[in-house]
Specification:
The structure holds two protein chains of two kinds. Chain A is α/β, with parallel strands linked by helices. In chain A, strands 3-2-1-7-18 form a five-stranded parallel β-sheet, with helices on one face. A five-stranded parallel β-sheet of chain A has the order 9-16-10-11-12. Chain A has a four-stranded mixed β-sheet with strand order 4-5-6-21. Chain B has a single domain, classed as Ubiquitin-like (UB roll) (Roll), CATH 3.10.20. In chain B, strand 1 and strand 2 form a beta hairpin. Chain B starts with a strand and ends in a 10-residue tail after the last strand. The chains are: A alpha/beta, B mainly beta.
């Protein structure tokens, strides 16, 4: 029997960083990624033939090039399985994967696991957010990186956060500047900016994005938000409000985003001291962004090495890097903070099951998770509550505890693939 | 070089290495069908396989997230209930 590998779920910066660190320490690694290439959303590579024209900070290119070089240097220690989707952990503690390339499910009993499945974008719902033509800003950015081309037709970007001007600048540079960027917060007050700069925020990047927006003549409106969207021919009629000013913009694409949260729906709970240790890393543990995810992946790997008795954790430098990222995120959250808004009753909360805010309000104020799920049918649909969960938590002012223990499968999986289940050689 | 797959019988061009979602959107196909009267229709939304909004039916195979799956020559795809989702 060969030595059981350390399993790493997710090939973004955190997972890749953890894989390189463990392999460099001499441990075999099984790195599983749902897409056809490593990199995660941040380092999504252009599809074959599409040029890599998307404007982004040079730092990201450099860090990813350095990390992929490290992975290549210890390629003999790392088995990479792409196009393979994590389904969860079964009752027997096996990690289950849907190998989409082979069309079959396989089970792995690793020596330890690091789960680095990234973040989910959060959305503040409004009537019409469920329509075709409405996409998350992050999703649109991934598509832009892959295809090298912006979507055609008028684009409106709305919500909150630094991704909004970043994406707007990238779209402008790619040849289709959005008609406007609506930021619901009011971040650009001098005191706020000073606090952000003091926290070590990426002010240079902010200036570059602002310059690109100015050059593309893209209006950036603070304290402005989308109130509703309706189908309008091949596009959307989008109601917007800025102070007392209300009007309708006709666009083809509405890109929304209100921040990110760790992707934890159905993900195993961290258990660093268990017989088979499980650690979380990167934005999937704490949403601190791509630079911090590199540090956090390395931190998880070093913690695991210490736990397995094959290394001593030198974590102080990593911790201070993460603490800095935490200060930037806190300053950003403070800068962007805006009051929660009560959605119109017809607003969809659960898109999968077609459940509205009125349906949520019909539940008792102190409804349990079980009641929210079984009576309200929230969180039961195909997305497993990855989107309605954070919305419900924000609207009710407290987190919705996850179903415990996490249940598999996290994603729909075909019965045929399950029937071809294979187990790895360690069983 | 590029290929074609079929969306509800209609050929859709794709470039090598491109996802089904990217090709559909470039062809102007944003509405991925309406499973029934009261549920919203399919669409590409999160781009990272999380929201499950872009799941499409595949003839003779299991439904897949179009944002994760590379387009392949000759794939026959459609809205979820249209084909491939029967349990026979």
């Amino acid at each position: 029997m060969t030595e059981a590998p350390i399993l790493i779920v997710g090939g973004g910066p955190a997972g890749a960083s953890a894989a390189a660190t463990l392999a460099e320490a001499g441990l075999p690694v099984l790195l599983v990624e749902q897409r056809d290439q490593l990199g995660g959303a941040i380092h999504r590579q252009p599809a074959n033939g599409a040029g890599d024209h998307v404007w982004r900070p040079a730092r990201h290119r450099r860090t990813w090039a350095a990390l992929t070089a490290r992975l290549r240097a210890c390629a003999g220690m790392i088995e990479i399985r792409t196009q393979t989707v994590f389904l969860g952990v079964d009752g027997a503690g096996r990690f289950l994967f849907d190998d989409r390339r082979a069309g079959r499910v396989f089970a792995s009993r690793p020596r330890a696991a690091i789960v680095a499945v990234g973040a989910i974008e959060t959305i503040r719902p409004f009537p019409g957010w469920e329509l075709p033509g409405v996409m998350t800003a992050g999703g649109a950015q991934v598509l832009l990186k892959e295809t090298g081309r912006p979507p055609e037709g008028p684009i409106l970007i709305a919500g909150s956060g630094p991704l909004l001007p970043a994406l707007a600048a990238q779209l402008a540079k790619a040849g289709n500047p959005p008609v406007a960027v609506l930021e619901r917060g009011r971040p650009w007050r001098p005191g706020t900016l000073a606090r952000l700069a003091l926290a070590g925020g990426p002010m240079g990047e902010a200036v570059a994005y602002a310059a690109a927006l100015a050059l593309g003549r893209v209006p950036y409106r603070c304290g402005a938000l989308v109130t509703r969207a309706e189908p309008d021919g091949a596009g959307l009629a989008v109601g917007i409000r800025a102070g007392a000013d209300e009007r309708v913009l006709r666009v083809r694409h509405l890109l929304i985003h209100d921040g990110i949260e760790p992707n934890r729906a159905g993900i195993p709970l961290p258990a660093p001291e268990a017989a088979v240790p499980v650690l979380l890393a990167g934005d999937g543990r704490e949403a601190l962004g791509a630079d911090a995810a590199l540090l956090d992946g390395r931190r998880a790997a070093l913690q695991l090495l210490a736990r397995l008795g094959t290394g001593t954790a030198e974590l102080a430098a990593l911790e201070s890097g993460l603490e800095r990222a935490r200060r930037v995120q806190a300053a950003l959250a403070q800068a962007l903070g805006s009051k929660p808004m009560v959605p119109a009753p017809e607003t969809l909360i659960c898109r999968c099951e077609g459940r509205s805010y009125a349906d949520l309000q019909a539940l008792a104020d102190d409804a349990s998770v079980r009641e929210i799920r079984l009576m309200g049918r929230f969180g039961l649909g195909a997305c497993q509550g990855r989107f309605c969960g954070p919305m419900i938590a924000a609207l009710r002012g407290r987190p919705v505890p996850a179903a415990s223990p996490p249940r598999w499968p996290l994603r729909p999986v075909s019965v045929a693939a399950l029937a071809r289940l294979s187990t790895d050689e360690t069983e | 070089m590029s290929g074609h797959f079929f969306w509800s019988g209609m050929p859709v061009a794709f470039r090598p290495g491109e996802t089904i979602a990217a090709a559909l959107l470039r062809a102007g196909i944003a509405d991925l069908g309406r499973p029934d009267g009261h549920l919203p229709g399919g669409r590409v939304f999160c781009g990272i396989g999380a929201c499950q909004g872009c799941i499409v039916a595949v003839e003779d195979a299991a439904p897949i997230e179009s944002c994760l799956t590379l387009a392949r020559e000759g794939l026959r795809l459609g809205p979820l209930p249209a084909l491939g989702t029967g349990h026979d």
